[in-house]
Recover the amino acids of this structure.
Protein backbone atom coordinates (compact mmCIF):
# COMPACT_ATOMS: atom_id res chain seq x y z
CA UNK A 1 0.00 0.00 0.00
CA UNK A 2 1.16 3.53 -0.77
CA UNK A 3 0.17 6.88 0.65
CA UNK A 4 -1.51 9.39 -1.68
CA UNK A 5 -2.28 13.05 -1.09
CA UNK A 6 -5.47 14.33 -2.66
CA UNK A 7 -7.58 17.40 -3.23
CA UNK A 8 -11.27 16.92 -3.97
CA UNK A 9 -14.65 18.62 -3.97
CA UNK A 10 -17.39 17.69 -1.55
CA UNK A 11 -20.37 19.61 -2.80
CA UNK A 12 -19.17 23.20 -3.00
CA UNK A 13 -16.36 22.65 -0.49
CA UNK A 14 -12.77 21.96 -1.42
CA UNK A 15 -11.11 19.34 0.81
CA UNK A 16 -7.62 17.89 1.02
CA UNK A 17 -6.14 14.91 2.78
CA UNK A 18 -4.30 11.62 2.45
CA UNK A 19 -5.45 8.10 1.67
CA UNK A 20 -3.75 4.70 1.51
CA UNK A 21 -4.24 2.61 -1.63
CA UNK A 22 -2.42 0.16 -3.85
CA UNK A 23 -2.34 2.62 -6.78
CA UNK A 24 -3.42 6.07 -7.86
CA UNK A 25 -6.47 4.67 -9.66
CA UNK A 26 -7.56 2.71 -6.59
CA UNK A 27 -7.18 5.84 -4.46
CA UNK A 28 -9.34 7.78 -6.91
CA UNK A 29 -12.07 5.15 -6.85
CA UNK A 30 -11.97 5.02 -3.04
CA UNK A 31 -12.49 8.79 -2.88
CA UNK A 32 -15.43 8.55 -5.28
CA UNK A 33 -17.01 5.88 -3.07
CA UNK A 34 -16.81 8.37 -0.21
CA UNK A 35 -18.84 10.88 -2.23
CA UNK A 36 -15.88 13.07 -3.19
CA UNK A 37 -14.98 14.38 -6.65
CA UNK A 38 -11.19 13.99 -6.93
CA UNK A 39 -9.30 16.91 -8.45
CA UNK A 40 -5.79 15.54 -8.06
CA UNK A 41 -4.29 12.38 -6.54
CA UNK A 42 -0.52 12.23 -6.11
CA UNK A 43 1.74 9.66 -4.48
CA UNK A 44 3.49 10.77 -1.30
CA UNK A 45 6.11 8.04 -1.61
CA UNK A 46 8.17 7.37 -4.71
CA UNK A 47 7.60 4.27 -6.74
CA UNK A 48 10.04 2.44 -8.85
CA UNK A 49 9.86 3.51 -12.42
CA UNK A 50 9.87 1.43 -15.50
CA UNK A 51 12.77 1.55 -17.85
CA UNK A 52 12.12 2.53 -21.40
CA UNK A 53 12.54 0.16 -24.30
CA UNK A 54 15.98 -1.23 -24.73
CA UNK A 55 17.82 -1.59 -28.02
CA UNK A 56 16.43 -4.36 -30.19
CA UNK A 57 13.37 -4.79 -27.98
CA UNK A 58 11.14 -2.29 -29.76
CA UNK A 59 11.07 -1.34 -33.43
CA UNK A 60 12.61 2.01 -34.32
CA UNK A 61 9.37 3.11 -35.95
CA UNK A 62 6.07 3.26 -34.13
CA UNK A 63 2.75 1.80 -35.20
CA UNK A 64 -0.18 3.71 -36.63
CA UNK A 65 -3.13 4.97 -34.63
CA UNK A 66 -5.49 2.60 -36.44
CA UNK A 67 -3.30 -0.35 -35.46
CA UNK A 68 -3.39 0.77 -31.83
CA UNK A 69 -7.18 1.05 -31.98
CA UNK A 70 -7.48 -2.41 -33.52
CA UNK A 71 -5.20 -3.90 -30.86
CA UNK A 72 -7.22 -2.20 -28.12
CA UNK A 73 -10.51 -3.58 -29.43
CA UNK A 74 -9.05 -7.08 -29.75
CA UNK A 75 -7.57 -6.87 -26.25
CA UNK A 76 -10.96 -5.87 -24.80
CA UNK A 77 -12.60 -8.84 -26.53
CA UNK A 78 -9.98 -11.31 -25.28
CA UNK A 79 -10.15 -10.00 -21.72
CA UNK A 80 -13.94 -10.19 -21.89
CA UNK A 81 -13.73 -13.86 -22.87
CA UNK A 82 -11.90 -14.64 -19.62
CA UNK A 83 -8.28 -14.73 -20.78
CA UNK A 84 -5.57 -13.21 -18.61
CA UNK A 85 -3.72 -10.13 -19.78
CA UNK A 86 -0.50 -12.07 -20.44
CA UNK A 87 -2.28 -14.73 -22.48
CA UNK A 88 -4.22 -12.08 -24.38
CA UNK A 89 -1.02 -10.26 -25.35
CA UNK A 90 0.67 -13.51 -26.36
CA UNK A 91 -2.30 -14.42 -28.58
CA UNK A 92 -2.36 -10.95 -30.15
CA UNK A 93 1.38 -11.18 -30.88
CA UNK A 94 0.96 -14.56 -32.61
CA UNK A 95 -1.93 -13.47 -34.82
CA UNK A 96 -0.53 -10.06 -35.72
CA UNK A 97 0.62 -9.88 -39.34
CA UNK A 98 2.41 -6.52 -39.02
CA UNK A 99 5.99 -6.88 -37.80
CA UNK A 100 5.99 -3.51 -36.04
CA UNK A 101 2.75 -4.25 -34.19
CA UNK A 102 4.07 -7.65 -33.17
CA UNK A 103 7.20 -5.98 -31.81
CA UNK A 104 5.07 -3.63 -29.70
CA UNK A 105 3.03 -6.46 -28.20
CA UNK A 106 6.11 -8.60 -27.51
CA UNK A 107 7.76 -5.65 -25.76
CA UNK A 108 4.70 -5.12 -23.56
CA UNK A 109 4.57 -8.82 -22.67
CA UNK A 110 8.26 -8.78 -21.76
CA UNK A 111 7.74 -5.87 -19.38
CA UNK A 112 4.80 -7.62 -17.72
CA UNK A 113 6.96 -10.69 -17.14
CA UNK A 114 9.65 -8.47 -15.60
CA UNK A 115 7.16 -7.28 -12.96
CA UNK A 116 5.77 -4.04 -14.40
CA UNK A 117 2.08 -3.27 -14.42
CA UNK A 118 0.38 -2.91 -17.79
CA UNK A 119 0.03 0.86 -17.44
CA UNK A 120 3.72 1.15 -16.55
CA UNK A 121 4.62 -0.92 -19.62
CA UNK A 122 2.45 1.28 -21.84
CA UNK A 123 3.94 4.47 -20.38
CA UNK A 124 7.38 3.35 -21.60
CA UNK A 125 6.19 3.86 -25.20
CA UNK A 126 4.62 7.35 -25.35
CA UNK A 127 4.68 7.52 -29.16
CA UNK A 128 2.11 4.73 -29.37
CA UNK A 129 0.20 5.11 -26.08
CA UNK A 130 -0.48 8.69 -25.03
CA UNK A 131 -1.30 10.03 -21.56
CA UNK A 132 -5.03 9.43 -22.10
CA UNK A 133 -4.41 5.78 -22.93
CA UNK A 134 -2.11 5.18 -19.97
CA UNK A 135 -4.37 7.00 -17.48
CA UNK A 136 -7.47 5.02 -18.45
CA UNK A 137 -5.64 1.69 -18.31
CA UNK A 138 -4.15 2.64 -14.93
CA UNK A 139 -7.62 3.41 -13.59
CA UNK A 140 -8.91 0.10 -14.98
CA UNK A 141 -6.08 -1.78 -13.28
CA UNK A 142 -6.82 -0.16 -9.94
CA UNK A 143 -10.52 -1.00 -10.03
CA UNK A 144 -10.07 -4.46 -11.50
CA UNK A 145 -11.94 -3.34 -14.61
CA UNK A 146 -9.30 -3.70 -17.30
CA UNK A 147 -11.81 -5.02 -19.82
CA UNK A 148 -14.08 -1.97 -19.30
CA UNK A 149 -11.13 0.41 -19.61
CA UNK A 150 -9.98 -1.20 -22.87
CA UNK A 151 -13.57 -1.19 -24.15
CA UNK A 152 -13.97 2.55 -23.41
CA UNK A 153 -10.60 3.34 -24.97
CA UNK A 154 -11.47 1.45 -28.13
CA UNK A 155 -14.84 3.22 -28.27
CA UNK A 156 -13.25 6.67 -27.90
CA UNK A 157 -10.64 5.98 -30.58
CA UNK A 158 -13.11 4.36 -32.98
CA UNK A 159 -15.56 7.25 -32.69
CA UNK A 160 -12.80 9.76 -33.39
CA UNK A 161 -11.48 7.79 -36.36
CA UNK A 162 -14.98 7.29 -37.79
CA UNK A 163 -15.69 11.02 -37.79
CA UNK A 164 -12.28 11.74 -39.35
CA UNK A 165 -12.93 9.13 -42.06
CA UNK A 166 -16.33 10.63 -42.87
CA UNK A 167 -14.77 14.10 -43.06
CA UNK A 168 -12.11 12.89 -45.50
CA UNK A 169 -14.56 10.92 -47.65
CA UNK A 170 -16.87 13.95 -47.86
CA UNK A 171 -14.00 15.98 -49.34
CA UNK A 172 -12.74 13.40 -51.83
CA UNK A 173 -15.30 14.02 -54.59
CA UNK A 174 -15.17 17.87 -54.43
CA UNK A 175 -11.36 17.75 -54.39
CA UNK A 176 -11.24 15.41 -57.38
CA UNK A 177 -13.70 17.57 -59.29
CA UNK A 178 -11.72 20.73 -58.51
CA UNK A 179 -8.48 19.15 -59.71
CA UNK A 180 -10.07 17.83 -62.90
CA UNK A 181 -11.68 21.17 -63.80
CA UNK A 182 -8.53 23.10 -62.88
CA UNK A 183 -6.55 20.81 -65.16
CA UNK A 184 -8.98 21.45 -68.01
CA UNK A 185 -8.71 25.22 -67.52
CA UNK A 186 -4.89 25.08 -67.43
CA UNK A 187 -4.80 23.06 -70.66
CA UNK A 188 -7.16 25.50 -72.38
CA UNK A 189 -5.30 28.58 -71.18
CA UNK A 190 -1.81 27.20 -71.83
CA UNK A 191 -2.21 25.46 -75.19
CA UNK A 192 -5.56 26.17 -76.85
CA UNK A 193 -6.18 29.87 -76.23
CA UNK A 194 -2.73 31.12 -77.40
CA UNK A 195 -3.18 29.32 -80.75
CA UNK A 196 -6.58 30.85 -81.28
CA UNK A 197 -5.17 34.24 -80.30
CA UNK A 198 -2.43 33.97 -82.91
CA UNK A 199 -5.01 32.92 -85.51
CA UNK A 200 -7.25 35.89 -84.74
CA UNK A 201 -4.29 38.27 -84.81
CA UNK A 202 -3.21 37.03 -88.26
CA UNK A 203 -6.71 37.74 -89.55
CA UNK A 204 -6.48 41.34 -88.37
CA UNK A 205 -10.09 41.23 -87.32
CA UNK A 206 -11.51 43.25 -84.41
CA UNK A 207 -12.30 40.80 -81.64
CA UNK A 208 -15.28 40.87 -79.25
CA UNK A 209 -14.75 42.15 -75.70
CA UNK A 210 -14.82 38.69 -74.00
CA UNK A 211 -12.16 37.43 -76.40
CA UNK A 212 -9.90 40.45 -75.79
CA UNK A 213 -10.33 40.04 -72.02
CA UNK A 214 -9.38 36.36 -72.21
CA UNK A 215 -6.34 36.92 -74.45
CA UNK A 216 -5.10 39.80 -72.29
CA UNK A 217 -5.48 37.67 -69.15
CA UNK A 218 -3.56 34.79 -70.76
CA UNK A 219 -0.80 37.17 -71.93
CA UNK A 220 -0.42 38.59 -68.42
CA UNK A 221 -0.31 35.09 -66.93
CA UNK A 222 2.34 33.90 -69.37
CA UNK A 223 4.48 36.97 -68.74
CA UNK A 224 4.19 37.09 -64.96
CA UNK A 225 3.36 33.50 -63.90
CA UNK A 226 6.46 33.48 -61.69
CA UNK A 227 4.85 36.05 -59.40
CA UNK A 228 2.36 33.45 -58.25
CA UNK A 229 4.87 31.12 -56.52
CA UNK A 230 6.95 34.17 -55.54
CA UNK A 231 4.00 35.45 -53.49
CA UNK A 232 2.36 32.18 -52.41
CA UNK A 233 5.46 30.39 -51.09
CA UNK A 234 6.66 33.21 -48.76
CA UNK A 235 3.04 33.81 -47.74
CA UNK A 236 2.58 30.15 -46.86
CA UNK A 237 5.88 30.04 -44.94
CA UNK A 238 4.94 33.22 -43.07
CA UNK A 239 1.56 31.79 -42.17
CA UNK A 240 3.16 28.60 -40.88
CA UNK A 241 5.62 30.62 -38.80
CA UNK A 242 2.75 32.67 -37.37
CA UNK A 243 0.73 29.54 -36.64
CA UNK A 244 3.72 28.03 -34.80
CA UNK A 245 3.33 30.63 -32.03
CA UNK A 246 0.66 30.03 -29.38
CA UNK A 247 -1.05 33.36 -29.96
CA UNK A 248 -0.90 32.95 -33.73
CA UNK A 249 -2.42 29.49 -33.57
CA UNK A 250 -5.14 30.74 -31.25
CA UNK A 251 -5.99 33.65 -33.57
CA UNK A 252 -6.14 31.37 -36.63
CA UNK A 253 -8.26 28.76 -34.85
CA UNK A 254 -10.61 31.45 -33.58
CA UNK A 255 -10.94 32.80 -37.13
CA UNK A 256 -11.74 29.32 -38.45
CA UNK A 257 -14.61 28.99 -35.96
CA UNK A 258 -16.22 32.14 -37.41
CA UNK A 259 -16.51 30.68 -40.93
CA UNK A 260 -20.17 29.89 -41.68
CA UNK A 261 -20.98 26.15 -41.55
CA UNK A 262 -17.32 25.09 -41.78
CA UNK A 263 -16.53 26.85 -38.49
CA UNK A 264 -19.46 25.17 -36.78
CA UNK A 265 -18.29 21.81 -38.11
CA UNK A 266 -14.73 22.30 -36.80
CA UNK A 267 -16.06 23.51 -33.43
CA UNK A 268 -18.36 20.53 -32.95
CA UNK A 269 -15.67 18.05 -34.04
CA UNK A 270 -13.32 19.53 -31.45
CA UNK A 271 -15.96 19.47 -28.71
CA UNK A 272 -16.91 15.91 -29.58
CA UNK A 273 -13.31 14.69 -29.18
CA UNK A 274 -12.73 16.63 -25.96
CA UNK A 275 -16.02 15.74 -24.28
CA UNK A 276 -15.73 12.05 -25.20
CA UNK A 277 -12.22 11.95 -23.77
CA UNK A 278 -13.25 13.80 -20.61
CA UNK A 279 -16.33 11.64 -20.04
CA UNK A 280 -14.52 8.37 -20.74
CA UNK A 281 -11.66 9.17 -18.39
CA UNK A 282 -13.99 10.24 -15.58
CA UNK A 283 -16.00 7.03 -15.99
CA UNK A 284 -12.77 5.06 -15.64
CA UNK A 285 -11.94 6.76 -12.34
CA UNK A 286 -9.33 9.24 -13.59
CA UNK A 287 -9.14 12.46 -11.49
CA UNK A 288 -10.83 15.52 -12.99
CA UNK A 289 -7.65 17.58 -13.42
CA UNK A 290 -5.89 14.76 -15.28
CA UNK A 291 -8.96 14.21 -17.44
CA UNK A 292 -9.16 17.93 -18.28
CA UNK A 293 -5.50 17.96 -19.30
CA UNK A 294 -5.97 14.98 -21.63
CA UNK A 295 -9.19 16.41 -23.07
CA UNK A 296 -7.38 19.67 -23.87
CA UNK A 297 -4.56 17.74 -25.56
CA UNK A 298 -6.90 16.00 -28.02
CA UNK A 299 -9.14 19.01 -28.77
CA UNK A 300 -7.49 19.85 -32.08
CA UNK A 301 -8.54 23.50 -31.75
CA UNK A 302 -6.71 25.87 -29.39
CA UNK A 303 -9.87 27.81 -28.52
CA UNK A 304 -11.44 24.68 -27.01
CA UNK A 305 -8.10 23.47 -25.64
CA UNK A 306 -7.44 26.78 -23.87
CA UNK A 307 -10.89 26.66 -22.30
CA UNK A 308 -10.17 23.22 -20.83
CA UNK A 309 -6.57 23.87 -19.78
CA UNK A 310 -7.54 27.23 -18.27
CA UNK A 311 -10.25 25.48 -16.27
CA UNK A 312 -7.62 23.33 -14.55
CA UNK A 313 -6.24 26.29 -12.62
CA UNK A 314 -9.72 27.58 -11.81
CA UNK A 315 -10.85 24.19 -10.49
CA UNK A 316 -7.66 23.94 -8.42
CA UNK A 317 -8.62 27.28 -6.86
CA UNK A 318 -12.03 25.88 -5.88
CA UNK A 319 -14.18 27.19 -8.71
CA UNK A 320 -16.80 25.05 -10.38
CA UNK A 321 -15.95 23.61 -13.78
CA UNK A 322 -19.21 24.85 -15.35
CA UNK A 323 -18.57 28.41 -14.16
CA UNK A 324 -14.98 28.27 -15.41
CA UNK A 325 -16.00 27.10 -18.87
CA UNK A 326 -18.55 29.90 -19.14
CA UNK A 327 -16.02 32.50 -18.01
CA UNK A 328 -13.19 31.47 -20.33
CA UNK A 329 -15.37 30.73 -23.36
CA UNK A 330 -14.75 28.19 -26.09
CA UNK A 331 -17.66 25.81 -25.50
CA UNK A 332 -21.08 26.14 -27.10
CA UNK A 333 -23.98 27.18 -24.81
CA UNK A 334 -25.31 23.61 -24.98
CA UNK A 335 -21.99 22.10 -23.88
CA UNK A 336 -21.60 24.73 -21.14
CA UNK A 337 -25.05 23.95 -19.75
CA UNK A 338 -24.51 20.19 -19.88
CA UNK A 339 -21.20 20.56 -18.02
CA UNK A 340 -22.82 22.69 -15.32
CA UNK A 341 -25.80 20.34 -14.91
CA UNK A 342 -23.58 17.27 -14.87
CA UNK A 343 -21.32 18.80 -12.24
CA UNK A 344 -24.27 19.72 -10.02
CA UNK A 345 -25.83 16.26 -10.36
CA UNK A 346 -22.56 14.36 -9.91
CA UNK A 347 -22.87 12.89 -13.42
CA UNK A 348 -20.34 14.97 -15.33
CA UNK A 349 -18.98 11.86 -17.07
CA UNK A 350 -22.36 10.85 -18.52
CA UNK A 351 -23.22 14.41 -19.54
CA UNK A 352 -19.94 14.85 -21.39
CA UNK A 353 -20.44 11.59 -23.26
CA UNK A 354 -23.96 12.73 -24.15
CA UNK A 355 -22.55 15.98 -25.54
CA UNK A 356 -20.05 13.98 -27.62
CA UNK A 357 -22.81 11.73 -29.01
CA UNK A 358 -24.96 14.76 -29.87
CA UNK A 359 -22.15 16.50 -31.73
CA UNK A 360 -21.17 13.30 -33.55
CA UNK A 361 -24.67 13.16 -35.02
CA UNK A 362 -24.63 16.88 -35.78
CA UNK A 363 -21.27 16.73 -37.57
CA UNK A 364 -22.47 13.88 -39.76
CA UNK A 365 -25.50 15.97 -40.78
CA UNK A 366 -23.30 19.04 -41.32
CA UNK A 367 -20.87 17.08 -43.47
CA UNK A 368 -23.69 15.94 -45.73
CA UNK A 369 -25.01 19.50 -45.93
CA UNK A 370 -21.60 20.96 -46.75
CA UNK A 371 -20.95 18.32 -49.39
CA UNK A 372 -24.32 18.94 -51.04
CA UNK A 373 -23.52 22.69 -51.02
CA UNK A 374 -19.91 22.50 -52.22
CA UNK A 375 -20.51 20.17 -55.17
CA UNK A 376 -23.07 22.31 -57.08
CA UNK A 377 -21.22 25.50 -56.15
CA UNK A 378 -17.98 24.13 -57.54
CA UNK A 379 -19.71 22.94 -60.71
CA UNK A 380 -21.26 26.38 -61.11
CA UNK A 381 -18.00 28.30 -60.63
CA UNK A 382 -15.67 26.03 -62.59
CA UNK A 383 -18.28 25.41 -65.26
CA UNK A 384 -18.74 29.16 -65.60
CA UNK A 385 -14.99 29.65 -66.11
CA UNK A 386 -14.81 26.93 -68.78
CA UNK A 387 -17.96 28.27 -70.47
CA UNK A 388 -16.46 31.78 -70.60
CA UNK A 389 -13.24 30.48 -72.18
CA UNK A 390 -15.11 28.46 -74.80
CA UNK A 391 -17.48 31.34 -75.54
CA UNK A 392 -14.61 33.83 -75.86
CA UNK A 393 -12.94 31.57 -78.44
CA UNK A 394 -16.11 30.90 -80.42
CA UNK A 395 -17.42 34.48 -80.62
CA UNK A 396 -14.89 35.61 -83.26
CA UNK A 397 -15.76 32.56 -85.37
CA UNK A 398 -19.48 33.37 -85.14
CA UNK A 399 -18.65 36.99 -86.01
CA UNK A 400 -16.71 35.94 -89.12
CA UNK A 401 -19.56 33.70 -90.24
CA UNK A 402 -22.02 36.57 -89.87
CA UNK A 403 -19.78 38.90 -91.87
CA UNK A 404 -19.30 36.27 -94.56
CA UNK A 405 -23.04 35.71 -94.72
Amino acid sequence: MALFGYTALKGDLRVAGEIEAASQGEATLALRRKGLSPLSVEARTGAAGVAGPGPGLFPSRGIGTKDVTKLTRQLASLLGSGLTLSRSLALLARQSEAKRARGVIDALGEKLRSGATFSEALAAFPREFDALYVAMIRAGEAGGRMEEAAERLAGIREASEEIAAKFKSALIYPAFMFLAMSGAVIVLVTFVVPRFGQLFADMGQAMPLPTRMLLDAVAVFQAYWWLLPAVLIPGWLGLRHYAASSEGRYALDAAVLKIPLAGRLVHELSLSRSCRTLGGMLQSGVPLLTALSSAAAVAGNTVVARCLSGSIKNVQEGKKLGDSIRTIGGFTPYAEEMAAVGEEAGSLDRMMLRVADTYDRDTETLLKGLTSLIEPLMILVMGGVVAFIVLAMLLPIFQMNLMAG
DSSP finds 16 helices and three strands in the chain. The two ends are 104 Å apart (CA to CA). The beta strands are 2-10, 13-21, 37-43. The chain has a mean pLDDT of 83.
